[in-house]
Amino acid sequence: MADTGVRAADPADGDLIVRLAFGSMAAQTLRAAVRLRVVELIGDTRRAATEVAAEAGAGPQPMTRLLRALTGLGLLTEHAPDSFSVTPAGALLHPGHPNSLTSFARMFTEPVMTRAWEHLDGSVRTGEVAFDTVFGTDFFSHVAQHPQLSVEFNAAMSQAVRESAAALPGAFDFDRFTSVTDVGGGNGTLLAGVLNAYPGLTGVVFDTAEGLAEAQKTLERHGLEERCALSVGDFFRSVPKGSDLYLMKSILHDWADDQVVTILSHCREVLPPGGSVLIVEPVLPEVVDTDAGVTEAVITYLSDLNMLVNVGGRERTRKDFEDVCHRAGLSLTSVTPLKDAAPFSLIVAVAD
User: Fold this and answer.
1) Where's the O-methyltransferase C-terminal domain (predicted)?
2) DSSP 3-state of 182
3) On the CB side of 244, how many CA atoms lie within 13 Å of its CA?
4) Distance, CA of 315 to CA of 300 (rounded, Å)
5) What is the number of other CB atoms lying within 10 angstroms of the CB of residue 273?
6) Mean pLDDT of successive 10-residue segments in the chain (352 residues)?
């Protein structure tokens, strides 16, 4: 065999392959824990697997096996045979936790999210979206046709945006703007974080009717009904006039370049002099950089593949963002990592 300069494999390399091969099983173990309400049933004390099984409507022996697998994954601790408690990481699977990721975990382990991944190799060969073939329609249409799934998806997106909502107000100068429209703003969590930090700012949450289903509750919870309006629409047709800042988080990566240009062009059409477009998305380096953190790199590139198989979008480099902005009549002026919300960056664009 030719010398490639790569060292010979050692046992740790084999361990990595084994862990990766078992990855989908770990995800389904997480899914079972959420569906059986394991963390809720254990609570903040130690409980026997037999007690948890009885309350979950499960068999004692299978429940013990599940709890031990969850212990191996770092979500529980087994103190003695048949005695378990929840770890700090596991506590995030309790819906009552202030930083709960229950809906996020439920959504990203749902068959609607995972089945198309079985056809990843086909998507890599053809560039086609596997989801559309598997389900007979596109991802967002499918979600809209299933009300409970739509509720779960919106909840998952809300949980996913919390970290950015906390970090964004301190990372960008919103004081120089008067009104911000959050394009594809969902239930308003992100914009609420901004408006709470900038009392002189008004806002608009713009999304489909399904996307806005919980937005009014968010505004009421934050006391923002007088400073923030809801606008129903389709960003492929237009965006509302009247703001001098148009904000988008985790929107553009859902779509192919031509569709992204359409969305950005609609923002450009209503952008007043001195206005800006603020995009919050990961920005891929030109070469994979694991020095920034292995977890961050894994999430970003797996997200990129998720866009490929499920919706047809992609994660982008700075040059990619410059290209789509230019096609939409915008100039990218800065890219800044969003501190405390990795792997996201703040991408600012203005009218050419």
Assistant:
1) 117-330
2) strand
3) 12
4) 8
5) 7
6) 63 90 96 98 97 98 98 97 97 96 96 97 97 97 94 91 94 97 96 97 97 95 97 98 97 98 98 97 89 74 96 97 98 94 95 93
Task: Identify the active-site residue in 119, 142, 253, 266.
Answer: 253
Active site residue 142: no
Whose tokens are 């590139």? That residue is 301
Q: Specify burial of residue 283 (Cβ count, 10 A radius: 0-12, 13-18, 19+).
A: buried
Helical H segments across the chain, by residue range = 11-21, 23-35, 38-42, 49-56, 60-72, 88-91, 102-108, 111-114, 120-126, 130-135, 139-144, 147-171, 189-197, 215-221, 257-270, 294-306, 318-327
The CA–CA distances, whole Å, from 325 to 247, 319, 330 equal 14, 10, 5
- Encoding tokens for residue 75? 């979500």
CB 338 within 8 A of CB 280: yes
CA distance 203 to 180: 5
User: Residue 57 — φ and ψ, nearest 5°?
Assistant: 70, 35
**DSSP for residue 253:** G
- CA dihedral sign, ordered 298, 166, 320, 311: positive
Burial class of residue 218, CB neighbours in 10 A (0-12, 13-18, 19+): buried
